[in-house]
Amino acid sequence: MNLDLSDGDRAFRDEVRAFLAEHLQDDWREGQRRTTAMYPEPEVSGPWQRVLNDKGWLVPLWPREWGGTGWTALQRFIFETECALAGAPLVHPMGVRLVGPLLLHYGTEAQKHEHLPRILSGQDYWCQGFSEPGAGSDLAALQLRARRDGDHYVLDGTKIWTTHAHHANRMFALVRTSNEGKRQQGISFLLIDMHSPGITVRPIHTIGGDHDVNEVHFDGVRVPVANRVGEENAGWECARYLLEFERGAGIFSPRLRAQLKRVAHALRTPAAGTPLPADLLRRLGEVVADLDTFEWLEMRTMASLRPGERPGPASSVLKLRASRLKQAIAELGVAALGPAALRWRSAAPDGGVDQGLAEILVPEHCNSRAFTIFGGAAEIQLGLIARTVLA
Length: 391
What we know:
Layout: H1 7-23, H2 26-33, H3 42-55, H4 73-86, H5 93-106, H6 109-121, E1 126-129, E2 145-149, E3 152-160, E4 170-176, E5 187-193, E6 199-205, E7 211-224, E8 228-229, H7 235-248, H8 253-267, H9 278-303, H10 314-337, H11 355-368, H12 378-390
Parallel strand pairs: 1-4
Antiparallel strand pairs: 2-3, 3-7, 4-5, 5-8, 6-7
Helix pairs in contact: 1-4, 2-3, 4-8, 5-6, 5-7, 7-10, 8-9, 8-10, 9-10, 10-11, 10-12
């Protein structure tokens, strides 16, 4: 893939920079900077999503007739890079990058016209109901029961680790509609109104101190059969399609570079020591080399995708590498802080270390431990790579 910018690409980059300079507000940028959980809060990401939607730049991978941009892979990368460098908020992906592409592929015309415009406008804020107390990496073990009662399903059971369920008014979920045959064959895919009677959301606070995830309990919750995507007991294929977009349709390297930039600032502080220890320099070099390699892999994958096309087995490679890089950068940040990392909740500065930076890097490190678990554990991704790429 040719990475030299043409005159048109340079003009596009300048257009993106001018747009960011005009529309990106300082409080949104600060909100993203201080985000140590997976995603920024809705009051940070929501206004930025509306700005992008008004511009027509929100869903580059969607078809043009539903708001897609028709950008090339290089233009997508330019846009994501400039947004990351400018500190723009990360748009909540559950609607625009997960359930949206799924509905475009599997949804009925009625479902598309009902949900896609509300995803674009931000009227609907989605969460993902996949994991359960006994079904995480082994997703086929899920047990949230959906019993058919006329034109409705009646749901009983629990979902867990549900990101931003306390903000969401919509959930897309995998439910068990049959216990016959293979476990995967009894699963259906439902769209759920989070304001339905019988839904209880309980907070879970992460090790980094954030309220990002939740337990969601269903007690006799009625969901219309019309809210099922695909056929009954055929939800596993929907889930596989959606997970490929979750793992491989995003562009992660610019955000990882922004994270590394914060770590580099910590490395330059007096508390990190002058000169830097050889071990820290070696680790920094390894991370930079890994990130460069990952960036090339990401761009090559993007270049091969047409709008709406699934990433395929490469999604597992990208998910695994992005998760491990996130952890490696976070670990380097804590090492750079040195003893100041032990007092990250203190308001007092320590030896020249930016205490505000410590209050970001340390919980970011704590929360990053889950990156090789959620969205498909590292061991699961290695198995998928072995079966689909190396076989």
